[in-house]
Amino acid sequence: MPRISVIIPAYNGETRYLREAIQSVLAQTIQDFELIVVDDASEDDPCRILPKHSFIQYYRRTSNGGQAVARNDGARLASGQFLAFLDQDDLWEPAFLEATLEVFHKAPETALVHTDGYQVNERNHILEYDAAMKHTKSICQLLRNGHDTATSGSLIRKHCFDAIGGYDEHLTIWEDIDLGIRLSQRFLIHHLPEPLYRHRLYTRNVSRGIPPERALRAREYFLNKYSSHCLSDPIYKKALARDWAQYYSDKGKFHLARGEKQQARKAFIASLQSSPYSQRTLLRLLKTYFPRFSRFQLV
């Protein structure tokens, strides 16, 4: 039985970096793992580019469920003691599995070990260092005590993952943040300050630019889910208000880009109710009333 189950959810993997992600797994300094590729109903055939090894499993979903669903499918197939989820866009440094596993040996009560990383471009050129402890004013970080537990930068003890029910399949974004929050509420999390993974930034990243409607729905669900956790602490309550303001501001931008001025107006007003001193949001609101404000390039 392998010590670690590596799970890669894949969608259109022939053209979207899957081969490179797999190569970074095969290049690990320890080889005590199985690799499970979950094809989330791709339009191409990722199976064609998989190396022929007995420790590589391929599972194809009949319908596209999103990354949270695909990762949970992979976890159910996993036989390892630890789970490592690698996005098909991302890469591991060769020592990722060895270094994170060593932390578990030293701290057996730990549920999750996460590392620093690099942000890279489409050609795998380093753009910046990504430190995994982020003490921001967002409830996303406050509820995790500053731990930014990136999916591709984490190794998770499987019985802890199973104990909290895995990924929340209602979330199409922030499912990794949600998982980190729920793990930190019950177990210990350890940060290893070494850059051991690479997260690829490119024009089609879900998290960049004006969010699509599906992402907005997921953010609203997330904020509603954790609102009750923030009401008793003034710091958390203030952070929640800021996060709601940002959500409604982004929702307003979404509607404004579609020419839906009335819906945009309602969203910007809601944003200002949570954060009344935002000049940018006020200017966006004015754009919904006065065409002359359209010359302002607000993003």
In short:
By secondary structure, this protein is of the alpha/beta class.
CATH architecture descriptor name of the largest domain: Alpha-Beta Complex
Low-confidence stretches: none
> Largest beta sheet, briefly?
9 strands, mixed
Instruction: Indicate the percent of residues in helices.
Output: 25-40%
Average pLDDT number: 91
Fraction in beta strands: 15-25%
CATH superfamily of the largest domain: Spore Coat Polysaccharide Biosynthesis Protein SpsA, Chain A
Question: How many domains, as an integer?
Answer: 2
Order of helices and strands: EHEEHEEHEEHEHHEHHHH
Overview of the molecule:
This protein is α/β, with parallel strands linked by helices and 299 residues long. It is 38% helix and 19% strand. The chain has ten helices and nine strands. It has helices at residues 18-26, 67-77, 96-106, 139-142, 158-163, 175-186, 213-227, 234-257, 261-274, 279-287; strands at residues 4-10, 33-39, 56-60, 82-85, 91-92, 110-120, 126-130, 154-157, 188-200. Strands 1, 2, 3, 4, 5, 6, 7, 8 and 9 form a nine-stranded mixed β-sheet that branches. Helix 1 links the parallel strand 1 (4-10) and strand 2 (33-39).
